[in-house]
Predict the 3D structure of the following.
Amino acid sequence: MLDNHFKIWHAYANAYWPRKYIVLNGKIYFDHIGEGGYHETELMIRQLLNHVNPELDLSSIPVDGDPQAICSMPTPETYCGYSRGYTNNPGDLRAMEDFTYEDPQPGRYDKPGIYLQGRWRADRQYLEHSGMNPEDYLVLPIEAVSVNLVMTSANGPLSFDVNFNDEPLNDANRGNDVSGSTATIVEPRMYNLFRADEFVTGTLKLTNLPPGIRLYAFSFGGCIGIP
């Protein structure tokens, strides 16, 4: 369900992501905040299906239990466009302008949010790298188990490198959409850049950025044991 103007979000007075509701005939029968709750969700769906059709037999379909998960509060979802995003650079984002940003404190990232180096253009919904300098980068401090980034490209398939704490990604923290330490944008979607087996704190850095990469939003997982 697309809710670009947050009408449904506000109608439910929602303040969490992810959040699951199960609604039948205008009544909320189930409400779960955060990851997990898959077993209880499945049971409620079955219960309501049987309520609608008492003759429905679901006994042949197994009910999987929840994976055992340990969850911590991750970094909040971080938007890149000027409408909802911000940076730690002086003057923040310059809307609809190709601008050369200077990293205010290279190597010391003690505030949440994005740090930019190099030439970027901030659109309403996305941040586009518009420079030709391979030394340009984006840094984001994180506290998470996994990191995803919604991206697209203005110039066909494009690749860039992903580092964690100034080191290339490895088998212990490489995301599903990363090969070696390189991510390639092939279509507009969410890409999994980072995935660890424990909750970690550090800095994620995007480097070797060609022009035309468009970054929309970072999202973070905080649960160990969620596939």
